[in-house]
Specification:
With 128 residues, this protein is mainly α. Helix content is 81%, strand content 0%. It starts with a helix and ends in a 5-residue tail after the last helix. The relative contact order is 0.13.
Length: 128
């Protein structure tokens, strides 16, 4: 049943590296789609928070002012993704599939943010 959960959700999401890594574990432990979605959002959030904390520590050790700006941007990003996903769901004008839409939206935002945070660490203080 677990494998069918991932297929039901859509294998297209496996193209996103962070999702692919986490989907396998979640599909093995989930008995239904609600558990699968919850697991995937939780795992993705853990990765995001880990990358954020690593980036913040890295930046803070080099530039306290830049670290304060990173903290502010992370807070703004949280508000932005939530508002954007709320809009995405509202624009659908159908309550069916709301949970899938929220997960898809969050995955897109979280994966983009993870890439950005990793890029910050890779390029911090470097000049083109």
């Amino acid at each position: 049943m677990a494998a069918s959960l991932f297929l039901a959700f859509g294998a297209a999401h496996a193209a996103t590296p962070v999702i692919a890594e986490q989907a396998q574990s979640c599909e093995e432990s989930a008995a239904n789609m609600a558990q699968f979605r919850g697991c995937l959002m939780e795992r993705l959030d853990q990765i995001l928070q880990q990358d954020y904390q690593q980036t913040l520590g890295f930046v803070r050790s080099r530039d306290a002012q830049a670290a304060a700006l990173l903290e502010k941007t992370q807070q703004e990003w949280q508000r932005y993704w939530q508002a954007s996903c709320d809009y995405t769901i509202a624009a659908r004008q159908a309550p069916e599939g709301e949970n899938d839409a929220r997960l898809e939206c969050y995955m897109a935002f979280a994966n983009a943010r993870i890439k950005i945070l990793r890029n910050y660490r890779d390029t911090f203080g470097k000049v083109d």
